[in-house]
Amino acid sequence: MAAAELGEEIGAVVSRGGRPDLGGDALPQVTGPTLLIVGGFDYAVIEMNKEAYAQLRCEKEMKIVPGATHLFEEPGALEQVAHFAAEWFQRHLQSQMTARKSAAMSS
Question: What SS3 class is residue 61?
Fold first, then answer.
């Protein structure tokens, strides 16, 4: 809901084992690139994230961490989550900074 309300101010969104489905009618309003990360054994949350994913109209991706449960307590699970999130933020926030610099230089 916050990402929808803040609009273009949001550079990227990562949800780890979250409930983005609770965003309801706000989901189609999210403009920031959104990554949903869910544990492979968190079956109920996978389904809820799939529902939310279908409603998102922004650039989006869903990653499932194999063998992980809801809290990602399994060995290596949180490291995999951190890797996915860091990669997502680096890709999207870096490209936004480059675009801003280009716009400032052409002004």
Answer: strand
